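Show me a record, fold above all:
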Amino acid sequence: MESSDNDELCLSAETAAALQEFLLEKAEKQKQTDDVEENWQFSQFWYTDNTADILSNECIRALPEGGSIACLSCPTIFDRLLQKEAIKTQLIKAKLFEFDRRFEGKYPDYFEFYDFWKPKDIRPELRNTFDFIVADPPSLNEDTLVRYVQAIRLLNRSQETVKILICTGAILADLVKRLLGCHECKFQPEHRSKLGNEFRCYVNYDAKGLQ
């Protein structure tokens, strides 16, 4: 009888160890699923944590309660926004406009499919509803930037009061100024992957958090 009891204890310990291993593996897989990797075919290059923090803080700082933020092709900024108290309590609202549907699974309540080549496909109920628009076009060329400008004009609540923050290459500085009335900030965004092109932040308002 004593031997049987010992066998049961060993079996219970082995079962507990196996269960613990299974739960650890499950947690690791979940973490891997949550951490969406860059897809270079989409020209995705994630910001460093510091850059994402600074840019998301600026989005919140620039808006009063009741404001709304549209994030165009910048999921790392959006991820940080969701951690802000103003977003959690819905004092400020935010939506992610993104082509990569992996983020639809990660942010089902905030995701809006967005093909930047087709800005006119933006749903009518989302037009003219955003007070702050932050964008990170995937390519550094005029055609791409023009499409984003079209989307920004469709999404903003008011051409006179909308605040715009756009992160793109230094080579597009003149075009950004001409199309959006934005000026370059002192703060320079950094990416996890070291890129050859110089990136800059441009705004159409007094961005105190980026000086």
